[in-house]
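To the structural biology subgroup,

Please find below the input and predicted structure for SWI5-dependent HO expression protein 4, which we are adding to the shared reference set this quarter. The sequence is reproduced verbatim from the submission form. If anyone notices a discrepancy with their own records, reply to this email rather than editing the shared folder directly, so we keep one authoritative version.
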Amino acid sequence: MDEQAIRITEHPKEMASLSPKEQTQLILAQLMEGGQEDDETCKALDKLTKLLNDDAATSKNAQSKDTVTDVIDSECVDTLLSYLDMRQAETVRGHAVLTTSAYLRAAGDRGSQSLKTFFFDRIQRGTYDDYIVAFCVAASVFPIAPEITADIFLTEGFVPSLGPLMRRTWKSKKVETACLEMLNAASMNSLCREAIQKYCTDWLEEVVDQDPSELPKAIHAVEPGVQVTTGSIAMRRHSEAVQNLAAVILAKMRVGTLKLPPTSPPAFENLQWR
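Predicted structure (tokenized):
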């Protein structure tokens, strides 16, 4: 697809002459192309959100099953959800949350299944980047689709795997931070909170209670043949922010009084789109 087609979202009149499906395809092509300024990405996400919200409203009042979500395949879902990555700009992530919410609403059960497939595909790949993206997506989607995300989170074997996984030595603490953000979001749900308390408490307490001055001794005791350097210590040391987040999650486990909001998040139809 040429550059003019990719950037067609900059030309509202041209977009208006296309069908909703055609507009959706072109916006997705722009998002999948990447390499654009954050402001341009946010505009594309906003346009896609409006198309999805309009589609959901139309489908509710019509017998036709024709929907713009028909052109959103697994590769498109992968692209959209990847904008929830903590390494994206905060503004981009915020707009991507709205788009994801609109997609899940418009796509219904198919959207829920796509989310689940995306999450576990990433977990099964098991790379540094895949874990970060999967955990970030779960953390972002929990508040807007709590039932769907709780079902994913409570899949047999997932929560028990988190403690051993987080005790690995990663090339940065972003995996650990993303996991903690997911646990913090999941703690809104009572069943998820119980699972976290059962399987993750020991690891969370280790994070909170870590004494940096004792770390070199601990490493030497476990791995006596390994030369302990400043860099290797830094890779295993938890930052203050990580320790504080772990402490917040533990506090929620102990209090156990958090509940989901009584109502769903407000609809986005009335937002002003660019």
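Summary notes: DSSP finds 15 helices and no strands in the chain. Residues 125 and 181 are 21 Å apart (CA to CA).

Regards,
Lab coordination
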